[in-house]
Amino acid sequence: MNHSGTLYVVATPIGNLQDITLRALETLKTVDVVAAEDTRHTAQLLGHFGIQTKLTALHEHNERNAGQKLVELLLAGKSIALVSDAGTPAISDPGAILVDLARQAGIRVVPTPGANAAIAALSASGIAAPHFLFYGFLPAKAAQRRHALEKLRQLPHTLVFYEAPHRVLESVADLATVLGDRKLTLARELTKTFESIHTCPLTQAPAWLEADTNRQRGEFVLLVEGAPAIEEQAADPETQRILSTLLHDLPLKQAVKLAAEISGAKKNALYELALTLKPEQP
Ligand code: SAM
């Protein structure tokens, strides 16, 4: 018989403490240890709810070593709650390594769901598209960030990013440069006093952020509309103009390749369009 304890993965609020769930409170109260990203931060949360459970640190710099020790505790029958500073552990936060170690050791892992900034932002955005891609944080350095965005440029899904206040302006400018003019929703300070949700075209977003520095403060989720469908890409008048001009002087394949690079439209969409624009070559 397995006498191991259970590892609970417990979501905590992303701002408003009322968003803690009844189940999270019960779990945090009854486990033997709470493994926290920042013990001082979580001590405040526990203090607010009158919970006195012992805390231990588990953060990105010690996760494997601390995780192995926690697995030993679990194997010895202790139960542990894993929390991060805010929201759901292991979502752009530490936690996945401990969960993996525990599962490999045959320990029962129980999610205790609750707040998550990406889902909160999506739920209040009014974006009706059924599919989204959760990306989390883009690279901090501009060249790497633009490279990462290039890879996302053609995806038809809503793109969901996390961003820090000191980088939001440059990131939004890069989103506009690489992805072109799509709809952007900036969800800031969700569940907190200065919560704001603003939607505008990507190309207007840098100016909107600069118009009032308060708009750059706090925590952000950025939601970007997915790439237009292939037929829509090829139907764009500017794309058609580029392709027609290139077809004038270049062989079809080369014109399509260049037009795709210039416009960001998909090659197969442009190929179909090129066939309608230029009579078939011998
Ligand atoms: N694990 C968390 C979750 O489940 O959402 C995310 C942690 S990640 C380290 C922190 C980032 O999440 C912030 O930089 C911001 O992009 C986003 N975030 C967290 N709280 C937020 C809030 N109240 N409003 C908007 N974005 C928030």
In short:
The protein is 42% helix and 18% strand. The protein is of the alpha/beta class and 282 residues long. The chain folds into 3 domains: 6-115, 3-Layer(aba) Sandwich (Cobalt-precorrin-4 Transmethylase, domain 1); 118-224, 2-Layer Sandwich (Methyltransferase, Cobalt-precorrin-4 Transmethylase, Domain 2); 230-277.
What topology does this entry show?
Layout lengths: L5 E5 L11 H9 L2 E4 L2 H10 L5 E4 L5 H13 L4 E4 L12 H9 L3 E5 L4 H7 L8 E6 L4 H11 L5 E6 L4 H12 L3 E6 L7 E6 L3 H6 L9 E5 L5 H6 L1 H13 L2 H12 L3 H11 L5
Bound molecules: S-adenosylmethionine.
The site of S-adenosylmethionine has 24 residues, from helix 5, strand 7, strand 8 and strand 10.
Provide an overview of this structure:
The chain is an alpha/beta fold and about 280 residues long. The chain folds into three domains: about 5-115, Cobalt-precorrin-4 Transmethylase, domain 1, CATH 3.40.1010; about 120-225, Methyltransferase, Cobalt-precorrin-4 Transmethylase, Domain 2 (2-Layer Sandwich), CATH 3.30.950.10; about 230-275. The protein is about 40% helix and about 20% strand. The chain is built from twelve helices and ten strands. The chain has helices at about 20-30, 40-50, 65-75, 95-105, 115-125, 140-150, 170-180, 205-210, 230-235, 235-250, 250-265, 265-275; strands spanning about 5-10, 35, 55, 80-85, 110, 130-135, 160-165, 185-190, 195-200, 220-225. The strands form two sheets. It has a five-stranded parallel sheet, with helices on both faces. Strand 6, helix 6 and strand 7 (about 160-165) form a beta-alpha-beta unit. Helix 10 (about 235-250) crosses helix 12 and helix 11 packs across helix 12. The model has no long low-confidence stretch (mean pLDDT about 95). The structure holds S-adenosylmethionine.
